[in-house]
Amino acid sequence: MNTFKLAVRGLTRNSRRSLVTLLTIAFGFAAISLFAGYTHNVYEGLARQAIHGGLLGHLTLHKRGMDTEGKLDPERYLLTGPEVEKARRILADEPHIQLVAPRLGLSGLLSNGKSSTIFIADGIEPRAMEVIQAGLLSLSNIRPEVLAAYLKKLNPQRPEEVELASGLAELLHLPRNAQAAMLVSTVSGQANALDVSVGGTFDTGNAGTNDKLALMTLQLAQTLYDVDGGADRLTLLLDDVALTDDYAVRLAEKLKAAGLPLEIRTWKDLSDFYKQVHTMFNMIFGFIFSIVLTVVVMSVANSMGMTVIERTREIGTLRAIGLRRSGVVRLFATESLLLSLTGCLLGLLITVAVRAGVNLADISYVPPSSTSPVPLLVDLDLPRIAFTFVLMLLVGGLAAWLPARRAAVRPVMDALGHN
Q: Other CB atoms closer than 10 Å to residue 273's CB: what's the count?
């Protein structure tokens, strides 16, 4: 209790230096916490966009080798109709699987009668697309008009209709209800063409795909590709994203035991953009964290060093009346911990205040490779905040150890005679 009182008095003795160090810790803590909250929001948004907006689902099942050899020999690596139904029956008793959706991808030429351009299409059941996209409806960080542009809708009553990315529709001047022709290569390598109508347009959110992507019913894709009930992959939607990795392992073993050794890939495996952004922000966070931590350590060490020099005679007096060397170290370590604790608590208040201001300011920006603005929002990343809090307390205490150790080993007579 005496050590605590002496530590408080020591901090208040030179209030100006203590205040500067306190603010350094507080703003450093707030900077780390705010950036952690921003990256957390970005990760959550990219994950939701990949799973629900990009229609990746949580897991994708396909025959092994489909990614490498499937383009050269598609017929060999397609899932047949009976195989699709068998997989559905095997997965039907899994409690956390909300959806099993067969998919079929194809590419070719889209023509408006005067000009043509390449397209990449994905065939999916209309109901399945609606279920996958339902996860976007809970997004609170996207304006309703922007969200409406992302949503796609296929009409099960009109399988000849296709949804075109807005850039592709604009490139060929194809408004809603316009007629177009699609030319593709079938599974056997022959040319096949069908007339289609434009049911609507959507924004992919990515400049690289907004002038190429088309969506169509699975029935239309199978007709164009000349396959009967087949698909190149199955998309699985779970009720909890946290189960993704566990279910990838579990389902692989279950399907293999049932005679369907399908390869299973998670949404993270398929979303290169998410992985690249995640890696980049983790590196930036580590860089910022190391800089702020270095500044805090130097600030605390400098403050404690100056305090030790100014209080040398006081230390000598305390040693003369019986305080052990370990007591001197404990005294300055307590001062440093109090300073770090107060600074972190103040930094937490700054974080909450700045976060509220940013989230209410309605700030938007257009990310790289994006076609529409997204709001700038900051979350409270509690695990990283707690980690930063503990680490700053630990580092703050260690930063006071060296100057306190030097003061503790100094002879008592030298300390009492210090000017």
A: 15
E strand or H helix at 8: helix 2-13
Q: What is the pLDDT of residues 94-138, one digit of tens each?
A: 899 999 999 999 999 999 988 999 999 999 999 999 899 887 776
Cα 45 to Cα 378: distance, rounded to the nearest angstrom: 12
According to DSSP, the residues that pair with 307 across neighbouring strands are none
Give the up-direction half-sphere exposure of residue 355: CA atoms within 13 A in the CB hemisphere.
Answer: 22
Kindly report, residue by residue over 238-262, the tens digit of the pLDDT.
Answer: 989 999 999 999 999 998 888 888 8
Distance in angstroms (rounded) separating the CA atoms of residues 41 and 36: 9
What is the rounded distance in angstroms from the CA atom of residue 192 to the CA atom of residue 183?
6
- Would you say how long the chain is, in residues? 419
pLDDT, residue 374, reads: 76
Instruction: Check if the beta carbon of residue 141 is closer than 8 Å to that of residue 374.
Output: yes
pLDDT at 70 over 50: yes
The count of C-alpha atoms lying within 13 angstroms of the C-alpha of 109, restricted to the half-sphere facing its C-beta, is: 12
Residues 134-156 have a mean pLDDT of 68
Is 4:330 a contact under the CB 8 Å cutoff?
A: no
pTM, rounded to two decimals: 0.79
The whole-angstrom separation of Cα 167 and Cα 202 is 9
CA atoms within a 13 Å half-sphere pointing along the CA-CB vector of 124: 27
* Look-up of token digits 């604790």: 341
Q: Are strands 233-238 and 59-63 parallel, antiparallel or unpaired?
A: antiparallel
Instruction: Read off φ and ψ for residue 215, nearest 5 degrees.
Output: -120, 140
Q: 163-221 pLDDT, tens per residue?
A: 999 899 999 999 998 999 999 988 888 899 999 999 988 887 777 788 899 999 999 99
CA dist., res. 282 & res. 157, Å (int): 47
The string over 137-147, giving b where at least 16 C-beta atoms fall within 10 Å of a residue's C-beta and e elsewhere, is eebebbeeebe
